[in-house]
Design brief:
mainly beta, Jelly Rolls, 2 domains, 9-stranded antiparallel beta sheet, 7-stranded antiparallel beta sheet, LamG domain-containing protein
């Protein structure tokens, strides 16, 4: 749904000094344009994806799951705007472990769908209660999945309901059990995982060691890759999110606030500066684009596997002098500036890297959209979220770049 346009004659106090556009996703406030879906051409930012309802969620600052429809902004207050690569949940009936068509309950366990969910509304009778009627090797709930040998990772939202005995998870049918006992509590759901491993035909599930112990389980997920993504809700079939394309502007034919941003801060109208707060899982990702793309083949701010952040433009790339911090819980801050003859980039208050070579910018007179958390086509995803993006129609000083990125 569209968010309000907060632009006015004078910016509110939270906007960075003399910014042309300031987008504070974390706090749900915008300066310089409205935000909505791709079908509304009046918007500053548009979004489209190839998925279906239930495939898109976000995790709040207090660890609860917010559910979005397809083609909605996954903007979570207290966190930011999610942007992820296409991934699929291979586990069926991810919120209902009483479904015998998918889940096999051992002789020493029982299941009942009578627990509040791990979603923001704590929806009643949504999560599954697993109880050990006879603790030990038979107190299991398992699901077998047909999948060729590949790297996978199993995760779930789990809360302890009764007892204090050992609770374990497996993704290889019990050949390896991962003890998650120390992570659990009886107040809130947490999201343990098995860690990534190469498995053929995974068998995922849980085991309780002590008779009478019980846990609540919600948003079960098995996905390929090294890291855990946001939950995708399944029933009788697997479910994945499509390539998620957030962008300033639109690749349609209608002029919108996104084109106005590009006109105002780009199109070779230098100088210009940018500041971005972001977080992501970069393990195993060759390139993750933080900002840029569209018609620009090289005009991007990118995170590299080596841990550097790069200002990549026509004829030249400039790497930051220090490395980014991997993981969704770690916030990185980058500032860049360009003047038509060169540019500079600073990450997390490290040394400022600069160049006087070919001009460094994100400009192209034919560009009609600039990707946010992707390179403008839905690929090279950030695999995380963006908390804030700010644009200036001037060059930031060294002091400003260092102060912003502390």
């Amino acid at each position: 749904m569209p968010f309000p346009n907060l632009a006015a004659k004078a910016p509110p106090a939270w906007v960075f000094r003399d910014a042309a556009f300031d987008l504070d996703f974390r706090n749900g406030r915008w300066w310089g344009g409205s935000i909505g879906t791709r079908t509304n051409f009046g918007n500053l930012i548009t979004v489209s994806n190839g998925g279906v309802n239930g495939a898109y969620t976000g995790i709040t600052a207090d660890g609860k799951v917010r559910i979005f429809d397809a083609n909605q902004f996954r903007n979570v207050l207290g966190v930011g705007l999610y942007a992820e690569a296409s991934k699929t949940n291979r586990a069926l009936h991810s919120r209902d472990l009483t479904q015998a068509s998918a889940w096999t309950v051992g002789a020493g366990a029982s299941v009942s769908r009578n627990q509040p969910g791990a979603d923001v509304d704590a929806t009643p009778n949504t999560a599954t209660l697993i109880t050990a009627t006879t603790g030990g090797s038979t107190a299991t709930v398992l699901q077998s999945i047909t999948l060729a040998s590949s790297q996978v990772i199993f995760s779930a939202f789990v809360r302890r309901v009764s007892g204090s005995g050992t609770v374990e998870m497996t993704q290889d049918g019990g050949a390896t059990w991962v003890d998650i006992t120390s992570q659990l509590n009886s107040i809130i759901y947490v999201r343990p995982n098995t860690g990534a491993a190469t498995v053929t035909n995974p068998q995922i599930g849980f085991r309780l060691a002590t008779t009478g112990n019980s846990i609540a389980v919600d948003f079960v997920q098995l996905e390929q890759g090294a890291t855990v993504s946001t939950p995708k809700i399944t029933t009788t079939t697997t479910r994945g999110l499509g390539a998620e394309l957030h962008s300033f502007g639109d690749d349609g034919s209608s002029y919108n606030d996104g084109q106005r941003l590009i006109d105002t801060t780009h199109y070779n109208r230098l100088p210009m500066s940018q500041y971005i707060e972001f977080s992501g899982d970069f393990d195993g990702v060759t390139v993750a684009t933080i900002l840029g793309g569209g018609n620009l083949t090289t005009g991007r701010i990118q995170a590299q596997t080596s841990g550097v952040v790069r200002l990549n433009s026509s004829g030249l790339s400039v790497d930051t002098a220090n490395t980014l911090t991997n993981g969704l819980g770690n916030i990185n801050k980058v500032a860049t500036r360009s003047n038509g003859a060169g540019g500079a980039i600073c990450l997390n208050a490290g040394a400022i890297a600069s160049s006087t070579g070919p001009k460094i910018n994100l400009t192209d007179p034919t560009d009609d959209h600039i990707g946010i958390g992707n390179r403008g086509a839905g690929d090279q995803s950030l695999n995380g979220y963006i908390r804030r993006i700010t644009f200036w129609r001037r060059e930031l000083t060294d002091g400003e770049m260092l102060e912003l990125t502390r």
